[in-house]
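Justification of computing resources. Each target in the renewal requires a structure prediction run like the one illustrated here; the chain below, 368 residues long, is used simply to show the kind of job we budget for.
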Amino acid sequence: MLIGVPKEIKQQENRIGAVPAMVHELVQGGHKVLVQTGGGLGAGIPDDAYAKAGAELVADAATIYARADMIVKVKEPLQQEWPLIRKGQLLFTYFHFAADRALTEAMVKSGAHCFAYETLTVHRTLPLLTPMSEVAGRMAIQVGAYYLERHNGGRGVLLGGVPGVEPGNVLILGGGVVGSNAARMAAGLGARVCLMDISLDRLRYLSDVMPPNVVTLHSSPLAIRERLHEADLVVGAVLVSGARAPLLVRREDLKHMKDGAVIVDVAVDQGGCIETCKPTTHADPTYVIDGVVHYCVANMPGAVARTSTFALTSATGPYARRLADLGAAKALHDPVLATAANVVAGKVTHEGVAQAFGMPLVPVDKVL
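Resulting structure tokens:
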């Protein structure tokens, strides 16, 4: 199969969908790989590294889309890329369809086969979402601490405090990969951390493994509201696989928060779990509503592009190889790859996406 790896064009997105080692594996497997010139520079990977791995360097994305049978990316195709996508072309990337009706409709209209990293499931885990969730969870505390500084619009709070001065309070909504990584990072800084989740089994596990400055609490609208008033930093870390994130903090809840408190909504690429959340970019990452600083960058790991690229491709590489080996039709009968199928041949094949927009759902085994 001819596989194309275009340069990401989302603002301040420096990751790339394949590293030289992944290219080498694909080439050794009998596939041909096209990589856009300069595509890896943001992650510190020079063009000659791809050439040595066996890739053909191509100057422009339009040529890659025109030639390739399969496209491997990091982020969802942007509007200017939609006309380049062909009927029957296989796309493997993060899509987060349930948060973007226009993208969903465009991919349905294209007739392409869209396999999404974020819904690929193995033994009830999401292995292609995990590495970026780990990065985003840790970054959430890093950027939250930065924007808590007074000159950045925050309250002027040092999360870890100092002797004689109490530490900051961090509220984390969701105890999954993002939330647990955020909790460990905040606890390591010395903050007081409250980690909330609706699963008692998950809370029991987290209570056992977290440092003593992390308390776990069952999540409910009332419990969240009660904790908001003392929080210096709130991290939205809720995920419903393939579906829009549930709204846990409403606009009216902001009045319970302190002036200069910070919200980091990691769920923004799935619509956000804070009602006042709207996607921002690394170029203009924050805005203020009711005195609360909001950080809602939809591609947070892009800021640490080298770490993120290698973490992501180490996870996606084997599945990209299997997808290329099988092709779309046979992949729909693979019990793992089929879970990544979201839009195939003009049909919505993932329940969460269909429910988000009231679109007809076609089972994957019926679509091709």
